[in-house]
Amino acid sequence: MSDPSSYLPPATFEFLVLSTKMQAEMYLGLVHFGEDKDRPEQDFHAARHAIDLLAMLQDKTRNNLTSDEQRLIENSLTELRFRYVQAMEARKSAEAEPAPGDTGTAGA
Question: What are the extents of the domains in the chain?
């Protein structure tokens, strides 16, 4: 049996940030592996949780990061927050659109 550490990346701050960012992107439906028919539903609660985890990590590591680490977490949070808002707005717009063939008259 092969050693698991031989195929795992080093446990670094960068890896933790990028892994959590990827989870949030997957929950927002921005990243998907496989066929479109198998695309999972967006999970805004889980996405918000991943974003909140990164924000907590940023807060707890304040003044204890290299400039590159600080830039990585700041940029990741900025991007994720923007994409979260975009995804929420897109969902609301899609829900507000009438279904194809719907004339908009209820009970007619």
Answer: 10-96
The reported pLDDT for the residue numbered 97 is 78
Cβ distance 42 to 29 under 8 Å?
Answer: yes
Radius of gyration of the chain (CA): 19
3-state secondary structure string across 6-46: HCCCCCCHHHHHHHHHHHHHHHCCCCCCCCHHHCCCCCHHH
DSSP string, 87-100: HHHHHHHHHHSPPT
Length of the chain as a residue count: 108
**Is the entire prediction scored with pTM above 0.90?**
no
Question: Are the beta carbons of 77 and 55 closer than 8 angstroms?
Answer: yes
Q: How far apart are CA 86 and CA 24, in angstroms?
A: 13
